[in-house]
Write a structure and sequence with these properties.
about 160 residues; alpha+beta; 7-stranded mixed β-sheet
């Protein structure tokens, strides 16, 4: 796995479809070293720990290889960096060659693949499209969650 971009974000409150929602799906790239901690990256925090975060979902990785296909499928949608709320945008690893239990190293940190992403409604909020979660599942381009096996430092 090679990390193309490291992104973090803190919870923010947004209005979506007439409701006030707290979300951390909006991530921004950081440049330089980032501390990897047991539950997340420095500068990152999940909003709803009942479905996101925790030891089994400390870091979300999404393959850069999927972005061209999304741009093709949805030409009127802008896909900026970390568009899917990922912490790591990666190359060389996709859902077809990653398996639960695989160990990955990046910088001085080590990770374990724990599960594919099951998108919640906040992905739809992010793109303002009610069908985004379904599109992601049907496409098989879900990315995957990582637990932190060894804390350390990563860079893009």
């Amino acid at each position: 796995m090679r990390i193309v971009s490291v992104s973090v974000g803190l919870p923010r409150t947004v209005e979506w479809r007439g409701e006030v929602v707290e979300t951390s799906i909006f991530k921004s790239p950081v440049h330089g070293p980032v501390q990897v901690e047991q539950m997340n990256l420095a500068g990152d925090r999940q909003s709803d720990l009942t479905v996101h975060g925790g030891r089994e979902k400390a870091v979300y990785a999404y393959p850069a290889e999927h972005y061209p296909r999304w741009r093709e499928d949805l030409p009127n949608v802008h896909f900026d960096e970390a568009a899917f709320g990922e912490n790591f945008t990666t190359t060389g690893t996709t859902e077809t060659n990653m398996h639960i239990g695989d160990r990955l190293r990046a910088g001085t940190a080590e990770f374990i693949v724990t599960q594919p992403r099951t998108p919640c409604y906040k992905l739809s909020l992010r793109f303002d499209r009610l069908d985004m979660g379904k599109r992601m599942i049907v496409s098989g381009r879900t990315g995957f969650y990582l637990s932190v096996a060894r804390e350390g430092v990563v860079t893009e």
